[in-house]
Amino acid sequence: MTFTKLMATAALTLGLATGAFAQDKTKVGFVFVGPVGDGGWTYEHNQGRLAVEEEFGDKVETVYVESVAEGPDSERVMTQMALDGADLIFTTSFGYMDPTINVAAKFPNVKFEHATGYKRADNVSTYSARFYEGRAIQGHIAGSMTKSNIIGYIGSFPIPEVIRGINSAYIHAKKVNPDVQFKIIWAYTWFDPAKEADAAKVLIEQGADVILQHTDSTAPQAAAQKAGNVITFGQASDMAQYAPMPRVSSIIDNWAPYYIARTKAVMDGTWTSTDTWDGIGPGMVGIGEISDAVPAEVKAEALEMKDKIASGEYHPFTGPLKKQDGSDWLAEGETADDGTLAGMNFYVEGIEGDIPQ
Amino acid sequence: MALATPVLAVLATMVFGGLLFAVLGKDPLQSILTIFWQPLFGEFAFYYRPQLLVKGAPLVLIAMGLALGFRAGIWNIGAEGQYIIGAICGAAAALAFYPLEAWWIFPLMVICGGLGGFLWAMIPGLLKVKFGTNEILVSLMLVYVAEQLLSSMSLGLLKNPEGYGFPGSRNLQQYASAHNAEIIAGSGMHWGVLAALIAVIFAYVLLTRHRLGFAIRVTGEAPRAAKFGGVNPARLVLFCLGASGMLAGLAGMFEVAGPAGQITIDFNVGYGFTAIIVAFLGRLHPIGILLAGALMALTYIGGDIAQSQLGLPAAAIQVFQGMLLFFLLALDVLTNYRLRFGAAEVA
Q: Where in the numbering of this chain does the ABC transporter substrate-binding protein PnrA-like domain appear (chain A) (predicted)?
């Protein structure tokens, strides 16, 4: 038993050694949860990968595997990348968290970056974007533009990131339109065009004339286009092919600057484990062009809010705010702390329905 | 001839897969080599070979159970659901006693996992026996029920209290008594692999030496003859569904306690459905299934390597796997029937 273990360890170390020294190219691996052509989440991560290639040219080699199931399959793919000599590996879905930590423990010299998780190690960083900042702007536009006062929301999984987005959008829709009502459907997927289209259709049938989505495909956009008079927002990617209607704006994930900076840090030997959570200000979250379908004054207000969020003058979660059960959350003028936001598992006052348990 | 077709199918897949890769602008020979050679004999085979066992074991375990039913014309399509329920029951049994460390926890999980899958398969079984419902539909529909139950468990009852509100149970890999660890470190040989091997031997003996196996085979080939021969069809339905449900449940339990580690919303990755392919690829024969499971695992692992090393898209790998089944079925037709062009003759 000890012999095989010894052999395995020796071989692993050997693999590491050759990986780390035998080449001067820095090798960067990417593990994707969807196909690179999803037009949303994975598409933008892949854009970040291409930006890394463009920035460093010959000095870098990137590899990726797409549509990797969360769980043991992802663990194998990461191990395989590390064995093949990757110096830095980005794992771009929440469900890769434990596998990333497991593989990182076996390859102490390889750096790992896990998106949207909360577990770190000496060679594992985490990074995410403050999408809720963009959701605030979406909520403002949605609340101003809805005529039926029903806003449909396609949730992926009831995790804090998604719940944060729902709360942020609701708060800002409610501010401009006290009669607004949210209808939320949980799709339990990040990428499944058929399911997403079904969800959008159901919401439209229930009277929603705004569809917000936290899933990655353009299927809800297509469904809204077919229904007519329904507006949507691009998710993760600009989805500009659906502008000016139904897509009136979008939240764009811009990973390129971060990926370039982290790759550079590995090249320079200055990489350390960190937790990054950037928003509109540093440019990790972009707001796609607001189309002409949006009334001019609403557009102006939305852009003003964007600037205020970027400069730090305004925080989307500013009191007074109550939780759904009526208990106090934030006092007048108080802003939410990152700890609460990171683990958010409650709706704010006014949202109907329960978070699935 | 029946033995030669799988080999021919693999060869045809290599040829046409190679063509596909060539059209995509990749070196076909290198692509095929990467998929079939790298995991077995490549530089890092010491890592991939154990992974073949990890990936193949649940496939073989489930397919073995399914094959028993398929042979008798009893179609359990819902192994994916039984797999999920087995995992939930196994994990729940362990988490109920967390953080107690005791030798009996793992055996208890095995029992609960198997029982969970068994009971879930009993639903279509009893409905068929009592009311004559179609077991294909009922077992398939129960997959979606099981998936909803899985979501509910990850978000509610089994959610990790120290998980910051994120869905998913505690990680069983960090709970020594419940961890389905490798029996020999670095070998990939966990208890599920052992169970799969035992299931293969057991099924082989059952089918070739036992009365029950004979009843299964006769029922599949000539149901009326089986009835005259004294086979009780109701009991056979319950046995086949129960056995396949139990094996699928066990596979789920071994997976959640070992390689996967935790109950999450998307814990299931389709082993229950892939196992149907494995069962047919293996000719519904125990040894064949063993080989087919290994081959399937090989294309998965090799496929991932080809993606990252050669930049092949995931879809191309899936097409490649699809070709394998297509050619096997096509060659089957050509083996059993002769193509005749022109007008049909009156026999």
A: 25-313
Instruction: Give the CA distances from residue A187 to residues A132, A259, B45, in Å, rounded to whole numbers and listed in that order.
Output: 19, 30, 39
Entry pTM: 0.83
* Residues B53-73: b if buried by 16+ CB within 10 A, e if exposed: bbbbbbbbbbbbbbbbbbbbb
Residue partners of A356: CB distance under 8 A and separation at least 6: A158, A186, B151, B152, B155
Find tokens 């089957």 and name the residue. B332
Residue that the structure tokens 């398939």 belong to? B140
**B156/A357 CB distance under 8 A:** yes
Residue B266's CATH number: 1.10.3470
Burial class (CB in 10 A: 0-12, 13-18, 19+), B185: middle
Q: Judge whether B324 lies within some domain.
A: no
Residue B332 lies in a domain: no
pLDDT in tens, A319-357: 899 999 999 999 999 999 998 998 898 999 999 988 887
Whether residue B10 is contained in a domain is answered as: no
CB-based contact B244:B275 (threshold 8 Å): no
Taking the CA of residue A293 and the nearest CA in chain B, the distance in Å comes to 37
Contact A343 B165 (CB under 8 A): yes
User: Is the model's pLDDT at B344 over the cut of 70?
Assistant: no
pLDDT tier, B1 (very low <50, low <70, confident <90, very high otherwise): low
* Contact assessment for residue A128 and residue A115, using Cβ atoms and an 8 Å cutoff: yes
- Pairing verdict, β A181-186 and A60-65: unpaired
Could you tell me how many residues make up chain B?
347
The predicted pLDDT at position A345 comes to 87
Confidence band for A17, pLDDT divided at 50, 70 and 90: very low
**Nearest 5°: phi and psi at A125?**
-100, 160
Residue from A60, A49, A51 nearest A24 by CA: A60
What six digits make up the tokens of A269?
């030997």
- Residue B79 is assigned to a structural domain of this protein: yes
Contact A29 B308 (CB under 8 A): yes
Which residues in A132-259 belong to E strands, given as ranges? 150-155, 181-186, 210-213, 231-236, 247-253
On whether the CB atoms of residues A204 and A223 are closer than 8 A, the answer is yes
Nearest CA in chain A to B182: A1
Rg (CA), chain B: 21
Domains and CATH numbers, chain A: 2-129 (3.40.50.2300), 131-250+285-342 (3.40.50.2300)
Average pLDDT over residues B301-314: 88
- pLDDT, residue B128, reads 95
Segments forming the whole domain that contains residue B206: 27-311
Q: Which two tokens stand for residue B2?
A: 């029946």
- Decide if pLDDT at A11 tops 70: no
Angstroms from B287 CA to nearest CA on chain A: 26
Which stretches of A35-168 are assigned E, i.e. beta strand? Answer: 60-65, 88-91, 111-115, 124-129, 150-155
C-beta of residue B252 within 8 angstroms of C-beta of residue B83: yes
Distance between CA atoms of residues B206 and B285, nearest Å:
11
Pick among A68, A157, A190 to test the B interface (most B CBs inside 10 A):
A157
Burial zone of B256 (CB within 10 Å; 0-12 exposed, 13-18 middle, 19+ buried): buried
Under 8 Å between Cβ of A318 and A134: no
**Cα–Cα distance between B14 and B10 in angstroms, integer?**
6
Determine contact, residues A352/A150, Cβ cutoff 8 Å: no
Banded model confidence at residue A10, pLDDT cuts 50, 70, 90 = very low
Nearest-Cα distance to chain A for B44, in Å, is 7
Confidence (pLDDT) at A18: 44
Instruction: Supply the pLDDT for residue B2.
Output: 66
Question: How confident is residue B346, by pLDDT bands cut at 50, 70 and 90?
Answer: low
A286 forms bridges with which residues in the sheet? A252
DSSP 8-state code for residue A223:
H
* Tally of domains within chain B: 1
The structure tokens listed for A328 are 């106090």
Query: Mean of the pLDDT values across residues B191-219?
Result: 92
